[in-house]
Amino acid sequence: MSSLASAPFGVYVHIPFCRSKCDYCAFATWTDRHHLSAPYLDAVTAEIRRAVDAGMPAATSIFVGGGTPSMVDPAHLMSVLAAIPTVDGGAGVEVTIESNPDDITPALLDTYLAGSVNRISLGVQSAVPHVLASLGRTHTRTNVDRSVAAIRDAGFASFNIDLIYGAAGESLDDWAETVRTVVALEPPHVSAYALTIEAGTPLAADTARHPDDDDQADKYELVDELFSAAGLRNYEISNWAAPGHECRHNLLYWRQHDYRGFGCAAHSHDAGRRWWNVRTPDRYIELVEQGSSTEAAGETLDAATRRFERLELQLRMRDGVPLDVLDGDLLPGLVERHHDRWTLTRSGRLMANEISLRLK
Fold this sequence. Notes:
36% of the residues lie in helices and 21% in strands. With 360 residues, the protein is an alpha/beta fold.
């Protein structure tokens, strides 16, 4: 096997099953197809083995997302992960599973650890009951506390808490309560995303519940201030981590390395070519069983587009962009110079999309 010093290569596994569908979610997830769970996991395993036989590189990171991966049979899911070749026999490879606080038990975590999972991403979203209800989430703050304690007791190397701000009815005080609650849990990594409107979702059709840009800007400034004070450094616009706990799998995406996605709707990237699988689990299973390609469509980026995308992603990260690709002197208060790079200030992060239009 190649070593971790080689080029990063990621593997993503998509689990499309959920107990309920949040009305802001546009991901490929279903609440009425749990009966497909076992054949679906078998199909993902078969697709992985086909890719390995075709020469897929060994993974330096693995991420299992969804959907709700923690609701499928954990032993079966671990057998899927066992089919993925990893560098150095898995030593030092980051393996993350997204989990619902309601699903976390010591037995589940023990199964994950035995299957080489070493990082949990916990979907918390908010600590305020009426905000959780607005988001369609069913867990309680007590379950979050219990889950974090269980993750620590089990001995996981790292974990992430996922948050969303800007839901209807969420005041700045509500958001402050959520952030302070999370800070008290002392997580090594937090992701905090502004609620976005996705076409075709129930939220998109309910304009009275759409988030307000100024409100979300105030909430971003608050979360950055409190997480920074707690020793969590912002290393990408929506992500904060204690030193050494940055998500290596996400960094792989942001640095345009190659990755392979398995499961319905999963995306892959290879040297500028991107493609994605068919969207429904039923069709995905059928194609795998037939020995047919699961690819739905794809695109190949030309050199100029790929370069611009790389700079856009670099701009979002703590290291920023080279001096010669941005007239930073024309953006006072929005960017600052660090040696040979321009990096976004907190105010600049709020205008990252507009600033990216000035990249050259």
